[in-house]
Design goal:
The protein is α+β, with helices and mostly antiparallel strands. It has 3 domains: 2-224, 4-Layer Sandwich (Glutamine Phosphoribosylpyrophosphate, subunit 1, domain 1), CATH 3.60.20.10; 247-264 and 283-323 and 370-583, Rossmann fold; 324-366, no CATH class. The chain contains 16 helices and 21 strands. The chain has a 7-stranded mixed sheet. Helix 4 crosses helix 14 and helix 9 (425-438) packs across helix 12 (488-501). The longest helix is centred in the middle third of the chain and has 26 residues, at 324-349. It is globular, with a radius of gyration of 26 Å. The two termini are 26 Å apart. This is Glutamine amidotransferase type-2 domain-containing protein. Residues 2-194 form the Glutamine amidotransferase type-2 domain. InterPro entries: Asn_synthase, Asn_synthetase_domain, GATase_2_dom, Ntn_hydrolases_N, Rossmann-like_a/b/a_fold. Keywords: Amino-acid biosynthesis, Asparagine biosynthesis, Glutamine amidotransferase. GO terms for molecular function: asparagine synthase (glutamine-hydrolyzing) activity.
Length: 598
């Protein structure tokens, strides 16, 4: 994970930077291993590239921005010919995997520096998440953008009152937060510095992603999306349900194994935290998993077990919140119980008796723990126990992250700022959960965090998928799945990247691997979920229709309890939704956040 900040201003303007010092500090938080800048003048404009680096590839830290001088040599004040700010993980380039000691940033920079201006051709060959800013000196163009799915964040400051300055960053400047917008993951953009805007702002050019059928009519230049359209096949009525032995179940294991292998197998030694004085004690984990105990994250944990050496520990990060609304509701219920018991006692004894066991029910002691009642804590422990039973040789480190209400209040403004431009109550609830789940508990906490994001969208895991099938059959279900896939980057990925990277940690999404997506999207809908299928009398036939292929994989791998876990959104499982008791249940997830940052 890295942080990107690019600034374009007028060369004759010698005032301070157009962005705040707070923004530079926030960029540095994303990449604590290195922070450097390159600044120079091209014609009438001044360009400044700043990058921070969280080093997770190769044998050593590679500082950014990467740049080269004309002919490879030149005076110190010569303008670079090429400059790259890169925030990504290129798992493959032109179909070939990187070696365990290779650094993807260096290779991508070498390819971009020798492509003769055909930047989009290089970027199309990358498999993996990324955001970037690249200066191509010979063409005097500034290229920038995100991968086709939008798995890494990149924002742009909007022009105000004819301001000709440009700023592009991984996150919004807290001092001018309302001026920042997310760069769409619909293509790669560039600014042509040879087209000087005498009036107004710089005009952005775009090389767009288009689907295969659109290629013949699309305006050039354009690029083909790397995945096919969602399979539109309508299964015949009364199709047999999937079973643990069905080919899609075993194929899904292979696809997830390959995706996870790329993401966890070759973590460089220099990226593993080593705390002085901890030698000979517990071995630090290379990988952590954002762990609710649901089928998505638990399957990631189970398959990672098959990949990593037996001596490697795996951290399961489970977050739970003190929710005042839930707590007060539980206290009110306890008071009702107390009152009914008092009445019963009076009826027996003719006088009022106080039971010491029922005193002060408003205090947290009336339940085991305010965190133990969180659904994700309960399912997390159950799934952790099942992992230990099925894979007893692994050191499974279940990390209980308890978040008091006071900490939520303290950190809420920072979370709202990181969320921008996302600004709904649902965004805040989800953002709070990821913010505290990814916050390092110890100095040697793993820098790589795996997320199960994408499984619900791919395999029909939401309740509305069942609703769509009930209303409109398979065509309605397919339409709903297609809608989910098209808006995944816009609704989730940039937001989650900004939240998690704030702690100098990197989220990796195995379900969103290009090759896994390409294949699963081509499957008919009844190979992914069980709606409308004819069930057998087998024990596994009672599993939910949602994400049935994934549930059957859990069953096949010996995790029957996990296979039967119900879908629960993180904001409800961790209890970040509707936290303030005074607001009750009146608030909706689609409402705008009521408290502005700062």
């Amino acid at each position: 994970m890295c942080g990107i900040l690019f600034e374009l201003s007028q060369a004759d303007n010698f005032t301070a930077s157009s962005v705040s010092g707070d923004l530079v500090k926030d960029v540095e938080r994303r990449g604590p291993d290195s922070l450097e800048s390159v600044e120079f003048v091209v014609g009438s404009v001044r360009l400044k590239f700043t990058s921070s680096v969280l080093s997770l590839r190769g044998t050593a830290v590679v500082p950014q921005p990467l740049f080269s001088k004309p002919g490879g040599v030149g005076k110190q004040d010569d303008a670079p010919e090429y400059v790259l700010c890169w925030n990504g993980e290129a798992w493959r380039f032109d179909g070939q995997e990187f070696g365990p000691d290779e650094n993807d940033t260096r290779l991508i920079f070498a390819q971009l520096s020798s492509c003769n201006g055909k930047v989009q051709d290089v970027l199309q060959k990358i498999e993996g998440p990324f955001a970037f800013v690249f200066y191509d000196g010979p063409s005097k163009r500034i290229w920038f953008g995100r991968d086709w799915l939008g798995r890494r964040s990149l924002l742009r400051r909007k022009s105000v009152d004819g301001d000709r300055n440009v700023a592009i960053c991984s996150i919004a400047d807290p001092q001018t937060i309302s001026q920042w917008e997310e760069i769409e993951a619909d293509g790669f953009y560039y600014i042509d510095l040879q087209t000087d805007p005498d009036t107004g702002t710089w005009h952005l050019q775009k090389v767009a992603f288009v689907t295969d059928p659109e290629l013949s009519t699309a305006e050039p230049p354009s690029m083909k999306l790397p995945i096919p359209q969602l399979c539109q096949h309508i299964p015949p009525a009364s199709s047999p349900a999937l079973s643990p032995q069905s080919p899609p179940v075993s194929r899904l294991y292979d696809l997830l194994y390959d995706s996870l292998r790329l993401r966890v197998q070759n973590v460089p030694l220099h990226s593993i935290p080593l705390v002085p004085g901890h030698e000979g004690k517990s071995r630090p984990s290379k990988v952590g998993i954002l762990f609710s105990g649901g089928v998505d994250c638990t399957m990631l944990a189970r398959i990672v077990h098959d990949i990593l050496p037996a001596e490697e520990p795996i951290e399961l990060l489970n977050v739970a919140f003190e929710n005042r609304r839930v707590l007060e509701a539980a206290a009110a219920e306890a008071k009702k119980v107390k009152k009914s018991k008092k009445v019963s006692t009076q009826a027996r004894n003719g006088e009022e008796l106080e039971s010491s066991a029922l005193e002060d029910v408003s205090a947290p002691s009336f339940i085991d723990s305010v965190y133990d009642i969180c659904p994700d804590r309960q399912t997390g422990r159950k799934s952790w126990n099942e992992l230990q039973s099925v894979c007893p040789t692994r050191d499974w480190r279940f990390k209980e992250i308890d978040v008091p209400y006071e900490q939520v209040v303290e950190h809420k403004p920072a979370v709202i700022a990181l969320l921008h431009p996302h600004d709904t109550e649902m965004d805040l609830s989800i953002g709070l959960a990821f913010y505290f789940a990814s916050r390092p508990l110890e100095a040697d906490s793993p820098k790589i965090l795996l997320s199960g994001l994408g499984a619900d969208e791919l395999f029909g895991g939401y309740a509305r998928h069942g609703t769509a099938f009930s209303r409109a059959g398979y065509p309605g279900l397919i339409d709903e799945l297609e809608l989910d896939l098209t808006r995944l980057g816009k609704r989730n990925l940039g937001r989650d990247d900004r939240i998690i990277a704030n702690w100098g940690r990197e989220a990796r999404f195995p379900f969103l691997d290009e090759r896994l997506l390409q294949e699963v999207i081509s499957w008919p809908v009844n190979d992914k979920c069980g709606f409308g299928a004819v069930r057998s009398d087998e024990e596994w036939s009672t599993l939910d229709n949602e994400k049935q292929v994934l549930r059957l994989l859990a069953w096949k791998l010996g995790m029957k309890g996990v296979a039967g876990e119900k879908k629960r959104a993180i904001q409800f499982g961790a209890r970040t939704a509707k936290m303030e008791a005074a607001r009750g249940g009146k608030i909706k997830g689609t409402q705008k956040i009521s408290v502005a940052p700062g």
